[in-house]
Amino acid sequence: MSFVVVVDDRSTNRNILCRLATSLEAGTEAVSFDSPVAALAAMRFRCPDLIITDFNMPEMDGAQFVERCRRELEDSEVPIIVITAYEDRDFRYRALEAGATDFLLSPIDHREFRTRSNNLLTIGRQRRIIRQRAASLERELDDALRRQAEVLRRGEATLRRLLDSIPALILTTNASGRCLMVNGYRNLLASGPDSQAGTVEGMFGADYRRRHAPLDRRVLETGQTLPAFEEALPDSFGRMRFFMTTKTPLFSEGGRIDAVVTVSVDVSDRKGSEDRMLLQTGLDPVCGLPNRLIALDRLSQAMVRAREGGGGVAVLFVDLDGLKKVYEQVGPAIGDRVVVAAASRVAGCVDPSDTVARLSGDAFLVLLPLRDDHPGPAVEGIITALRAPFPVDDGSFTLKVAVGIAEFPKDGSSPEELVSQAHAAMRRAKASGPAGACVFTAEMTGDPYGRAELEALLRRALERGEFRVLYQPIADVRDGRITGMEALLRWHSRELGVLAPERFLPVAEETGLSLAIGRWVLEEACRQSVRWGREAGRLIGVTVNLSSRQVLDPGFPALVEGILTSSGLAPAALELEMPERLLLGDSGHVLDVLDRLHRLGVRLAIDDFGTGYASIMCLRRFPFDRLKIDGSFVSAATESIDGGALVATMLGVARGLDLQTVCEGVETSAQLDFLRVHGCQSYQGYLLGQPMEAEDCLPLITACCPNGTSPAEA
Questions:
Q1: Fold of the domain built from segment(s) 166-270
Q2: Rounded Cα–Cα distance for residues 679 and 647 (Å)
Q3: pLDDT score recorded for residue 304
Q4: In sequence order, which residues have a C-beta less than 8 Å from that of residue 705 and are 6 or more positions away?
Q5: Which has the minimum average pLDDT: 4-8, 385-389, 429-433, 679-683?
Q6: In this structure, is the dihedral angle defined by the CA atoms of residues 614, 616, 618 and 622, taken in order, positive or negative?
Q7: Which of 48, 96, 413, 526 is the most exposed place for a label (fewest CB within 10 A)?
Q8: Which CATH code, of 3.20.20.70, 3.40.50.10490, 3.30.70.270, 1.10.10.10, is assigned to 288-448?
């Protein structure tokens, strides 16, 4: 049964239209309204199957009525017939544009009315049937999807319980290092930082990511499973546990590699048993060499034989500086491989009958019988062998070597004493520079690194003229133009050899000697900048690092002003770098000193940004001109997505604060390209040049920046 609504302000027309409507089909109900407003109000409670309306009505015309029907009725597609006079062509167009379904001309042809109305009612019924069927199908589909989702959920829950019950770590990661799945074994291991939850680094820490990222890349690039390797991870109780780890590609249905599956089986119990067996046999658990106890026993026996035969014994203490860094960067498994390779190289330099032992993580002991010969050839062979790079996966490590030599009987009468004397000689060799060897002498019985001796030597260093200033170039990222030189202090001690600042500046800071040393460096750098300017015919800027005591000294700005005046250097050509950690201390006093320096026209920079936890608010508060990003962040920028994002963020912060940027530690073209793309202004590092003597800088300045300018001129 159909329901028809008739709207017309003339009663005669309403009666005719209602009679025609009820004659359409048996049971048809027709209701008429003389007002469009009243019709709309009624139809909100009962939506009709067909609406017949006149166009010309006093409250609103037919087009307006149609628009409101489409907007306000429950069924916005109800058929609407608009009645217009033959000459009202514009009215018909307006009605159709407003959404009318059809129109009839007045006076109405009854046959035409019935035909068109029946067609519209039939179409309306079919549309409702289709809509109801679609709703029914949608409900059936929703029910089917819910049932399927429940089946999948139960299956996934069962699979999750199964994976969580396996006594191994199972981890699935994508190319960006994000964790796609990890089983419950992860809860037994130490957690990484919460700030990166969902990533490998967030779950297991930066060291784990650094070791595994290149291995994951290899699997993604080659599609091959990696051989099992051993690694160590801390558990939630702080104990180290050992794992045998494999990596397998996870392929999609289309054959593309979507992720890497890492499976780490806990072998701590087996590893502990193996280590205990090796210790019981007196062998080092990593490389299988004799341990300290066996080495001392063999040294004791060699001393007995030497006394009886009239010969001697050479004790070589071999130190591998940098081995700890290998373990930190690539993990225990690969670090152990380097130890095994080093042990093999040392053993290959002596006779099979000689003793090579491992004393500790980075120390080996070699025992050589002496008759008429000297251990020199063996020492040279060991140094040469250990200086060669140690290949590790896609890269390599180069270690510094220091060898201390003690001889029986002249240097000691007991095994422990001889090892101690060889150790003292090794420390002296270490102080003399990389890849050195030193024979024990009686004056080494004191500690060459002792605080009192180092302080005394520092006090005499300025008088002796032992300090030297080297210079490292700073260049424009865009074209390689030299924009300045950074002054770097070195100490050429007569007793200790060449020492980098980190070896002696802490003592200089504590004793107050850093003020005198810092003044000398500042004077030397300013005079050198003026000399370069005269020789190159243009101003060459210079950057000088400040110590904490200098920045905290109220008289420091006046000292800088005096040095600039005496040297003749323009203030804008001098850039002073201060350590980031000072921003976290007495910031009020530091701000006063920096403001006074800034008013002199000196440029100010914050050094090693990102390593001292200074906030962005500090950067806004202090009058810095430039931000120097630490080399550790630069090296990571091209190694991982996270590392690159971090450097890009730092550069963005600097741009937002209107600070110039310089990135240090740039060693590869890929790093330089990264900085260029992300808007860094300047860089320095081994890619551009190592620290050099002042006289060697001028050719580089001339070659790299003809007609160039320094930062002061920019």
A1: Beta-Lactamase (3.30.450)
A2: 11
A3: 80
A4: 481, 482, 483
A5: 429-433
A6: positive
A7: 413
A8: 3.30.70.270
